[in-house]
Automatic annotation (TrEMBL):
<feature type="domain" description="DUF1023">
    <location>
        <begin position="332"/>
        <end position="498"/>
    </location>
</feature>
<dbReference type="InterPro" id="IPR036689">
    <property type="entry name" value="ESAT-6-like_sf"/>
</dbReference>
<protein>
    <recommendedName>
        <fullName>DUF1023 domain-containing protein</fullName>
    </recommendedName>
</protein>
<feature type="region of interest" description="Disordered">
    <location>
        <begin position="528"/>
        <end position="571"/>
    </location>
</feature>
<dbReference type="Pfam" id="PF06259">
    <property type="entry name" value="Abhydrolase_8"/>
</dbReference>
<dbReference type="InterPro" id="IPR010427">
    <property type="entry name" value="DUF1023"/>
</dbReference>
<dbReference type="InterPro" id="IPR029058">
    <property type="entry name" value="AB_hydrolase_fold"/>
</dbReference>
Length: 571
């Protein structure tokens, strides 16, 4: 078992240097193949001496093949271990940096020592500070455990390779055809035996901090290899880097499309084979079942089209500037479908915003929502936030209809996923913490509000656009300073009519399913301007559905306001 004191002294340099020397030795060995094939016994030589000579030649050839395999195995393992140690060193640096920043130390046995809160902590803050320090200590323990787990795995793997080499068990060359000797082929077999395994990630359901602690112990090469070989383990993991999540999810999007196509083909067959009358008609009492099948087929067609549209968005020119690149952070074709797409790398930018769409949003229409995310990204850049990433987060099942949007269940079912996603953005970000904003539209504001109310979101600002209510009566109940809560709603937005007004309850009380309008001055947050909005036809100029989606029009005050907030400015 590797100790913390030992792992803090690990250095990949010697092994990385050794790889070059081992490679030079390997190259000298493999060029001997032709010479070995030429030392077979001469034609026409028979008898005991010839047999003995042939046996000696076979032993030489077998020995050289095994030697080539051993050298190749050592070269591969030394390279893999040196690379893996660089990941462990990075993990150690992250743990020690976190400990120093919060006045903790780590003992040689990995014990976390709390050196106490800042001496100037006020009496009224001591309880909250104690809770915060307990959480930091728990994260430090998780990170130390992951470093030691990875280090032990590396140590065990390397010892296994060395044991095989020392005991002559890398390959058995005695069964090879020595008439066609290839030391390079033997070397390839040995290299496979020298490959280092990648430690398994934490179990599904691990926190973003636990995922990040594991991820910190992997080298960049290991991360990319894991993303390519096991995309299902990397793509959905909050706390893993956006770069490798994108690699993984770009692989998974093809799988999702194939799965949806297979489901569609099966459904088409069911429809084609559906029981009919002799005249080919559907019986009246079977009509409901048949209509359900055809409706499901239509949904699948739209969903596959949505996947195709998303895939087309991802096909950007390799020369696209870094702050304009897309990163696919999630894809799931089940039910209505989910997707998460960032424009700009959220791990490296100074400003990060997560946009949560509302009612009717699904995988079929996701690229329309992503276009709104793109508009906010550009608005933030124009507002001075040149280093910005805007994420379109459809990581929940949004209500399908307006009648469903009066229920809190969709927000309650999705709030934990959004909370964990925001935690993951904090964990995977490099350098100074980013300025983070959560933006909800329509029912998306309800989800953001519920997540903030019930767990506290890792964000600096919240923006509610055309909100039907966010689950609280006052801004201060969102676990963020009220002057960092912003709302806007167009005058002619139909949400003003369908905003689930307070209804009579028991004992004369009024019940509001989703909470009061955040635009209400009594709510306590800030508001910013929107255009009046398109009206319905007729002289009455009634509110319209069209106004509900006009907040992202170019040069509109609402889009400029959102851009400024994302960029850390006042709207």
């Amino acid at each position: 078992m590797v100790t913390w004191a030992e792992v803090t002294r690990w250095d990949p340099g010697p092994l990385q240097t050794a790889v070059g020397e081992i490679n030079a030795a390997y190259n000298k060995v493999v060029v001997c193949s032709d010479d070995l094939r030429g030392i077979n016994t001469a034609d026409g030589w028979h008898g005991e001496a010839a047999t003995a000579a042939a046996s000696e030649v076979d032993q030489v050839i077998d020995g050289m093949e095994e030697y080539a395999a051993e050298v190749a195995s050592l070269r591969r393992s030394a390279g893999d271990v040196g690379d893996a140690i660089s990941g462990v060193v990075n993990g150690v640096k992250e743990v020690e940096g976190l400990a120093r920043a919060h006045h903790f130390t780590i003992g040689g046995d990995g014990e976390i020592v709390d050196n106490g809160p800042p001496p100037e902590t006020a009496d009224g803050e001591k309880e909250a500070v104690a809770r915060e320090r307990a959480a930091i200590a728990a994260e430090l323990r998780d990170r130390v455990a992951e470093v030691l787990k990875s280090a032990t795995d590396i140590d065990d793997d390397f010892c296994s390779v060395l044991d095989r080499i020392v005991s002559g068990q890398t390959i058995d060359a005695t069964g090879n055809d020595n008439e066609n000797t290839s030391l390079a082929a033997a070397g390839n077999s040995g290299a496979v035996m020298g490959a280092l395994s990648i430690p398994a990630p934490p179990p599904e359901g691990a926190t973003a901090a636990q995922n990040a602690a594991y991820w910190a112990t992997l080298s960049e090469a290991q991360r990319t290899r894991l993303a390519m070989d096991r995309p299902e383990l990397v793509g959905p993991r909050d706390g893993f880097s956006a770069k490798q999540r994108d690699i993984a999810n770009r692989g998974l999007i093809g799988r999702e499309r194939s799965r949806l196509q297979a489901e569609r083909d099966e459904l088409r067959k069911k429809i084609a084979d559906f029981r009919r009358t002799g005249g080919g008609e559907i019986k009246l009492n079977d009509r409901r079942e048949f209509d359900a099948l055809t409706a499901r087929l239509g949904e699948l067609d739209k969903k596959i089209k949505g996947v195709d549209n998303l895939d087309a968005m991802l096909k950007q020119d390799p020369a696209t500037p870094e702050n304009q690149k897309y990163y696919l952070l999630g894809i799931d074709g089940h039910d209505d479908g989910k997707a998460i797409l960032a424009k700009g790398n959220p791990d490296t930018t100074a400003h990060v915003a997560s946009y949560v769409p509302g009612t009717t949003a699904d995988l079929a229409t996701f690229t329309d929502e992503a276009a709104r995310g793109d508009a906010m990204h550009q608005a933030a850049i124009e507002a001075g936030g040149r280093s910005t990433s805007v994420i379109t987060w459809l990581g929940y099942d949004a209500p399908d209809t307006l009648s469903n949007a009066g229920s809190e269940s969709y927000a309650d079912n999705g709030k934990q996923a959004f909370d964990k996603f925001q935690d993951g953005l904090r964990e995977s970000h490099t350098g100074a913490p980013s300025h983070s904003t959560a933006i909800g539209h329509s029912y998306g504001t309800t989800l953001v509000g519920h997540a903030a109310r019930d767990g506290g979101l890792a964000v600096d600002d919240m923006v509610f656009v055309a909100s039907p209510g966010v689950g609280v009566d006052y801004a201060h109940q969102l676990n963020i300073a009220p002057d960092h809560v912003y709302s806007t709603t167009a005058e002619k937005d139909v949400i003003n009519v369908t905003n689930f007004p307070r209804m009579p309850g028991g004992e004369g009380m009024l019940i509001d399913p989703l909470g009061p309008d955040p635009m209400d001055p009594q709510f306590g947050g800030k508001t910013f301007e929107s255009n009046r909005g398109t009206t319905a036809g007729g002289p009455a100029e009634l509110p319209s559905v069209g106004a509900h989606g006009e907040y992202w029009k170019q040069d509109s005050p609402s889009l400029r306001g959102m851009g400024k907030i994302v960029a850390g400015r006042q709207p």
